[in-house]
Amino acid sequence: MMASILKKGVVLPSPEGYMHFRDPKVWYQDSRWWMVVGARDSSDLGQVLLFHSYDLFNWSEDYQILAKTDDKNVYMWECPDFFPLGEQFVTLFSPQGKNHKTINIAIVSKMVIWLVTGHLTNVTK
Questions:
Q1: SS3 of 114, please?
Q2: What dihedral angle (degrees, nearest 10) is formed by the CA atoms of 46, 42, 65, 88?
Q3: What dihedral do alpha carbons 64, 70, 72, 73 form, nearest 10°?
Q4: Are strands 64-68 and 76-85 parallel, antiparallel or unpaired?
Q5: At 10, phi and psi to the nearest 5?
Q6: pTM
Q7: Which end of the chain is more exposed for a tag (fewer CB within 10 A), N or C?
Q8: pLDDT tens string 12-63
Q9: Residue 56 pairs with which residues in a beta bridge?
């Protein structure tokens, strides 16, 4: 059986205050679709944002900032991933602008591993 793909274009525009918004990772869990996106805000700080949808076309405008840098050298967090590992969730991303010699968290080829506590079912903005 061949699957067909129908290109729809942009289904979620960049939220206000973000100059870069890219590299979505989408999955289905707990009766809805979830998406993490790498972002760069108007202050040039990297972030990972979490969105949800019930149909893949209409995404909630309410989103959660999963993680955000406070390092002025890190202007973008790209290629995010987010998945459960035991009772926690793991967020992976690539920090753009960070000097790998000065970072104090786990990096493998400029990929950062960040543990997030909580459950997706509690994200109800």
A1: strand
A2: 0
A3: -90
A4: unpaired
A5: -70, 125
A6: 0.77
A7: N
A8: 999 999 989 999 999 999 999 999 999 999 999 999 999 999 999 999 989 9
A9: none
* 22, 64, 70, 78, 97 from 73: Cα distances, Å: 19, 23, 9, 14, 5
91-104 residue pLDDT tens: 888 888 876 554 44
Q: Which residue has the tokens 């870069």?
A: 20
Per-residue pLDDT band for 118 (boundaries 50, 70, 90) equals low
Spatial strand order of the sheet with 32-41 comes to: 18-29, 32-41, 46-53, 64-68
**Amino acid present at 76:** M
d(C-alpha 55, C-alpha 35), whole Å: 12
CA dist., res. 42 & res. 62, Å (int): 18
Give the per-residue pLDDT at 91. 84
* DSSP secondary structure, 1-64, as one string: ----------SSPPPTTEEEEEEEEEEEETTEEEEEEEEEETTS-EEEEEEEESSSSSB-S--E
Pair of tokens at residue 17: 């205050």
SS3 122: helix
